């Protein structure tokens, strides 16, 4: 048929003939999962001793806090914050450790997490509706 471009023959089956795409390691992993330099570190939110900590931007990077204040949090506390609150709420209302501790949901979480045996045993689930 004149005027129509020729169709290319592709291998059959899902993913057949496609080369895997090499993705660079996420910047987040490089910044966040840091071993404590001189023995166990202390989470600034729950105050538990942890072997590894994450860097939490008190004003989220997406909301202009790229070079702003940061806190060292255990992975469980960091996941809990982002599971409960939106970036907007974290930027506007919960942008310091004292403000985070004063929040009702976080204070209940802190009472509970301080009783847990290890940082690895804490499971975090995303809230149905984040504030």
């Amino acid at each position: 048929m004149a005027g129509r471009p020729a169709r290319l023959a592709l291998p059959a089956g899902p993913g057949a003939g496609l080369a895997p795409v090499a993705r660079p390691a996420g910047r987040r992993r490089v910044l966040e999962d840091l071993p404590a330099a001189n023995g166990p570190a202390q989470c600034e939110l729950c105050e538990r001793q942890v072997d590894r900590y994450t860097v939490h931007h008190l004003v989220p990077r997406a909301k202009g806090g790229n070079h702003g204040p940061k806190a060292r949090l255990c992975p469980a506390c960091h996941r809990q914050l982002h599971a409960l609150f939106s970036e907007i709420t974290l930027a506007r209302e919960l942008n310091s450790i004292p403000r985070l501790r004063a929040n009702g949901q976080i204070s209940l979480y802190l009472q509970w997490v301080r009783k847990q045996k290890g940082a690895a045993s804490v499971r975090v689930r995303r809230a149905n509706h984040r504030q």
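The mean pLDDT is 74. Helices lie at 27-32, 75-84, 87-92, 97-102, 104-113.
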